[in-house]
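Quiz preparation item.
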């Protein structure tokens, strides 16, 4: 079974090995053995190279001697194991990694924990290499990181453009149909009931661009045609600003159209940006004097943002950055 047709997929992570051992020289590459890994194989965000936490120091061909016979990654949300191509692994084989994308910070945390290094408040243990040219990962590339000053760990890139599940919500039905105020739509986390939402305005704006103002309700049903009561005072998350990506990707599916009434719409909408001190705006990007609840984020939420907000509201485990 391959899950690529059922979920949003990221295809930019890199599959890497990180090997045991700390070395005082990054120039002398040790023998890198596939049976001496510090951590199970990891899918990582390539930005770790762009932020100079890993730098390339050599190259080694990939073959049976240097590669594990199988790669296995456990998906905690789906409770199944998959390989690096998202094919289900029926008989898992050690070492079993996590089927998620590791951010720069989570790579640092995993390496620190494996080495027994205390985590620094607000700082990463992996030091930033300076005066080096950033190079993106390539299969066979040997790289180093410096988790302890003057001591290096070695790793190797096994595969690039690795696929990873990037949503908890299913791809239901991609559509390019017109989106109108009053549209009722559904989103469905895998294995859960449908979550209902509604388009409130099609003329909202953020940073000069027209966007949609939508509500996601604390309202669920097993059948997407069995529309529950949609109460503006019973939202699962604060109002959000979004574009058509949720519908084009298939995460959102319109199931009905009902004219809006005054009772369907909150009297005020508030969105907070991340400035310090915070600033507040309405749905037309006009500044507000203060915060009113429920207050959402002053940001354009694409399909993955909608998925992440619902995932967090339902306290489901994330599988991506």
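Solution:
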């Amino acid at each position: 079974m391959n899950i690529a047709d059922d979920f949003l997929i990221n295809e930019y992570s890199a599959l890497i090995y990180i090997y045991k051992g700390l070395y005082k020289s990054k120039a002398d590459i040790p023998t890198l053995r596939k049976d001496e890994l510090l951590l199970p194989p990891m899918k990582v965000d390539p930005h770790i190279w762009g932020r100079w936490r890993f730098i390339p120091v050599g190259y080694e061909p990939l073959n049976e001697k240097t590669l594990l016979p199988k790669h296995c990654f456990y998906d905690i949300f789906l409770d199944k194991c998959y390989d690096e191509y998202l094919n289900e692994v029926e008989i898992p084989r050690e070492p079993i990694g996590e089927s998620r994308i590791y951010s720069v910070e989570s790579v640092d945390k995993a390496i620190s924990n494996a080495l027994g290094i205390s985590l620094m408040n607000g700082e990463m243990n992996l030091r930033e290499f300076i005066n080096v040219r950033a190079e993106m990962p390539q299969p066979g590339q040997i790289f180093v990181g410096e988790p302890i000053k003057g001591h290096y760990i070695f790793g190797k890139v096994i595969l690039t453009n690795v696929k990873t599940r990037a949503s908890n919500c299913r791809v239901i039905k991609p559509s390019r149909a017109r989106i109108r105020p009053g549209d009722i739509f559904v989103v469905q986390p895998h294995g859960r009931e449908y979550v209902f939402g509604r388009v409130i305005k099609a003329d909202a704006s953020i940073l000069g661009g027209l966007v949609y103002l939508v509500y996601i309700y604390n309202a669920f049903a097993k059948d997407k045609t069995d529309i529950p009561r949609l109460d503006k005072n019973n939202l699962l998350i604060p109002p959000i600003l979004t574009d058509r990506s949720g519908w084009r990707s298939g995460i959102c599916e319109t199931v009905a159209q009902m004219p809006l009434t005054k009772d369907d719409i909150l009297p005020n909408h508030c969105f907070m940006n991340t400035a310090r001190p915070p600033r507040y705006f309405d749905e037309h990007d006009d500044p507000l004097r203060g915060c009113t609840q429920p207050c959402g984020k002053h940001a354009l939420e694409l399909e993955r943002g909608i998925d992440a907000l619902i995932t967090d509201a339902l306290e489901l485990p994330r599988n991506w950055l």
